[in-house]
Amino acid sequence: AQSVTQPDIHITVSEGASLELRCNYSYGATPYLFWYVQSPGQGLQLLLKYFSGDTLVQGIKGFEAEFKRSQSSFNLRKPSVHWSDAAEYFCAFWNYGGSQGNLIFGKGTKLSVKP
Amino acid sequence: KAGVTQTPRYLIKTRGQQVTLSCSPISGHRSVSWYQQTPGQGLQFLFEYFSETQRNKGNFPGRFSGRQFSNSRSEMNVSTLELGDSALYLCASSFGLAGAQTGELFFGEGSRLTVL
């Protein structure tokens, strides 16, 4: 079945430390991949997206993600975390069928940042 | 440019009632999609409207319905509310038909529904 797996429900990192959030997908072809962030009480904000081409994509707020086809992964990274990065992060892919489509989301990873 | 606007932001209903949520997309966007977010099931696709027509539908019962107006604003309705309908309902817009594009959606802040 088509799905997105985010194996880490909750991660805590110290401010200034590096971050990697894991995402694995199951899909019949190379999907369009996304990372969204949701701050408490807010909607979803797009961090970055991968459609094709360079497998390392840059996003907003200093985030980047790397697509690895062999591992069916699209992990999100940030070299130095800021306290304002505390939020929930969702990996998603575009489930495309003809002229229809919708986003399939992972269950999310909640990031806490220690001062 | 204003983002996606959802109203109301919070509401409380009792079982058996119905509710209507509203979404105003980004100006110029013609597609509106709705997603339900719950702690247990996560984010799930409800439906998408484009040019006043439902173009795609997720796996939800018929109690969940929606419509889109000529100005692209959309409403979703849930009838005969159940406790399990308590959720954050997110609306997202895109310029064209989302299914024909690459899926880059712009989300509103959501309407949080509590069913007692």
Task: Tell me what the structure shows.
The complex is a heterodimer of chains A (115) and B (116). With 115 residues, chain A is mainly beta. Chain A is built from no helices and twelve strands. In chain A, the strands form three sheets. In chain A, strands 2, 5, 6, 10, 11 and 12 form a six-stranded mixed β-sheet that branches. In chain A, strands 3-9-8-7 form a four-stranded antiparallel β-sheet, with no helix packed on it. In chain A, a hairpin with a 5-residue loop joins strand 5 (33-38) and strand 6. The termini of chain A are far apart. Chain B is built from no helices and eleven strands. Chain B has strands at residues 5-7, 10-13, 19-24, 31-38, 42-50, 53-57, 64-68, 74-78, 87-94, 106-107, 111-115. In chain B, the strands form two sheets. In chain B, strands 2, 4, 5, 6, 9, 10 and 11 form a seven-stranded mixed β-sheet that branches. In chain B, strands 1-3-8-7 form a four-stranded antiparallel β-sheet, with no helix packed on it. In chain B, strand 5 and strand 6 (53-57) form a beta hairpin. Chain B is globular, with a radius of gyration of 13 Å.
Distance between the termini of chain A: 40 Å
Got a strand count of chain B? 11
Question: What order do the SSEs of chain B take from the amino end to the carboxyl end, as H and E?
Answer: EEEEEEEEEEE
The parts of chain A where pLDDT drops under 50 for at least 5 residues are none
Fraction of residues in helix of chain B? under 10%
Query: Roughly how much helix do the residues of chain A carry, as a percent range?
Result: under 10%
- H-E order of chain A: EEEEEEEEEEEE
Helix-strand makeup class of chain B:
mainly beta
**So what's the overall shape of chain A?**
globular
CA-based gyration radius of chain B: 13 Å
Largest sheet of chain B: 7 strands, mixed
Share of β-strand residues of chain B: over 45%
Kindly estimate the percentage of residues of chain A that lie in beta strands according to DSSP: over 45%
Tally of helical runs of chain B: 0
Quaternary state of this entry equals heterodimer
